[in-house]
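Sharing a chain and its predicted structure for anyone who wants a worked example. Both blocks are below, sequence first, tokens second.
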Amino acid sequence: MTVIDKLFKRARETVSDFRAEVAAVQEKIAQLQEEREAVENMLVPFEDATQSLDRWLDEVEQRGLLPLGGFTSGNSGDWPRFSERTADAYLSSLIAGAMREPIRQYLLDQIADRYEGRVSGTREEKARRLDEIDTQIFQLCVREERLIREAQSFGMEIVRRIGAPAEVMIATDASLEAAA
């Protein structure tokens, strides 16, 4: 093997090394983006969902309280008037009041089913974890851009990933170095 052949071989290996390293960084970014989506879809703690259901049942029960005075006046003209709009409110209020516990239990069972195999956490936990993931993704994007620029400085062309943040791609080398 001639010296020229050795140089070309080493150049091809260098290009391959850069591409492999960029691909590894991009794979980690994709994994973190999937994790971020899972955290965004994280359910609130079951206790919070239960409290929310109870508040909703209270609201439904109170929303359509019937004006009972019409029944006690002896005058049928004082009976509650129904329209399409008020009939639903009255009916749901009556059902929520008369059958609250069975309705509550039925809905709690359905809510509990949604928690099976899913992660839950408080808003604070969710926000903290999203911040951590966003920081990791940003650091990896900086690493990716630095690798691409380094490859370009050797005359190699590595295509940037779709969705790479513009603020990283247009940052100066000094800014990328400081962010690393």
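Comments welcome. The longest helix spans residues 3-40.
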